[in-house]
Amino acid sequence: MTEKISDIEFESVETINKFQNRKLQEALRYLEANSAFYQRMFKDNGIDIEQIQTIDDLVKLPFTEKKDLQLHNQEFLCVPSEKIVDYVTTSGTLGDPVTFGCTDNDLERLAYNEMKSFSCAGIKPGNIIQLMTTLDKRFMAGLAYFLGIRKLGASIIRVGNGMPELQWDTINRLKPDTIMCVPSFILRLIEYAEKNGIDYRSSSIKRIIGIGEGLRDQDFNLNLLGKRIKGKWDVSLFATYSSTEMGATFSECPYGCGGHVHPELIIVEIIGDNNLPVKDGEVGEVVVTTLGVEGMPLLRFRTGDMSSKITTRCACGRNSYRLTPLVGRKNNMIKLKGTTIYPPAINDVLDNTPYVVNYVVIVQNSYAGTDEVVVKVGVASGQTFDIIKDLKDRFRSRIRVAPIVEVLSPEDVAKINNPMNNRKPIKFIDRRN
Q1: 132, 163 contact by CB (below 8 A)
Q2: Domains along the chain?
């Protein structure tokens, strides 16, 4: 369970490293004693965990892949089933969903994680946060947010996702100062407010915490989506990065220079194409080892997310390292006409185009065997110009190349975005072999 300490993030780098080395040794001993999957991994690879003394020694261990969780899900469980108090699943965006069993201690750990993350974003007792996220459908994050805000002592309004009319009615009635939601939904809120005469700029909202989508570029300036929101609504914007597998959140502080790690909850490696750690500041794949998880802890789990590690001291005073905004997912990298791009760069252009209502990005093999990108967009009615030419010009000015553009009705695109039984809207489809 999480230790009672003042806050390890403000300790010296040396102290943080020693602390994480000790927590790593504890995690390895726990896995060797309780995890059928890792017991087999250690035996098959002749691993003596006593030889793993520091984070630098992690390179001696194999990775855990998403396919391992899919094929051997139950073998990762480290406690009897009667100790599981909550079951959650991953979204299944990149394959079959994976189930995670959480113990009571795991839920306490999630609450602690989110309490620290919300505190990092400046939230205190007395603040009122409107959650525009779901708490049902076996979604870990919504429950974690609720538990963390409760532990922090702030107030919660559980509205759920969507429903702009209900969101604005709640804001007008209960006067929250903070919104937590997917950033692109803010544009829908603004659009609804403008159409219905709501003076959103004078509302009680002073802060927006975004989940699931980036708000900043690699240089920490607001990306196109962030600029579009900020240009309409002068509120403080905070981005977060998390996943069900890691059970931890990287949250920005008010200085907006990367997501802060909580050293007592997770160890992060940034791995290059050779499967070795890259230098600090270089982009690579995020690999995580969870700390303090009781039900289903993970060792060297490959997230598939591409980011870099910033180790310099933050202006907020924290000495723990930070992660830059995600570049994209490793498996989603696209080579379009000689240019390497990731889907978030395409999304950024579309999110900043006022007449685009919704969209889906499809990447597939061309006849020549190269990557071909097709963007299907739903556009607002009444456009009198050449939409395809305008969009291609926008792409070329931002990412230097233009994909194939197809214009559909928003209703047809919505059917692709929201298939039956899918928890998250689908904006990217990879049809490559």
Answers
A1: no
A2: 1-328 (3.40.50.12780), 333-430 (3.30.300.30)
At 429, list the tokens: 């489809």
Tell me the per-residue pLDDT of 184-236, one tens digit each, with 9 for 90 and over: 889 889 999 999 999 999 999 999 999 988 899 888 999 888 898 999 999 99
HSE-CB at 374 with a 13 A cutoff on CA atoms is 13
407/420 Cα distance (integer angstroms): 23
CA atoms within 13 A on the CB side of 290: 27
3-class SS at 62?
coil
- pTM score, whole prediction: 0.81
- Reported as a pLDDT band with limits 50, 70 and 90, residue 284 is very high
CA separation for the pair 52, 38 (Å, rounded): 14
**Which positions ≥6 away from 246 have C-beta within 8 Å?**
266, 288, 290, 298, 301, 303
Please check whether residue 9 is in contact with residue 318, taking contact to mean a CB–CB distance below 8 angstroms: yes
Q: What one-character-per-residue DSSP string does 105-118 give? A: HHHHHHHHHHHHHH
Pick from 178, 173, 169: nearest CA to 148: 178
As a 3-state breakdown, the chain gives helix, strand, coil percent values, each rounded to 5, of: 35, 25, 40
3-state secondary structure of 39: helix
Do 261 and 321 touch, CB atoms closer than 8 A? yes
For the CA atoms of 174, 176, 181, 185, the dihedral, rounded to the nearest 10 degrees, stands at 70
Q: What is the mean pLDDT of the chain?
A: 91
Average pLDDT over residues 309-327: 94
| CA–CA separation, 129 and 237 (whole Å) | 14
Over residues 116-168, the pLDDT tens digits come to 999 999 999 999 999 998 888 778 888 999 999 999 999 999 998 889 999 99
Identify residue 368 by its one-letter amino acid code: A
Beta-strand runs (E) in 227-329:
236-243, 248-251, 259-260, 266-271, 284-290, 301-307, 309-310, 322-323, 328-329
Question: Of the candidates 195, 260, 208, 203, which has an alpha carbon nearest to the alpha carbon of residue 237?
Answer: 208
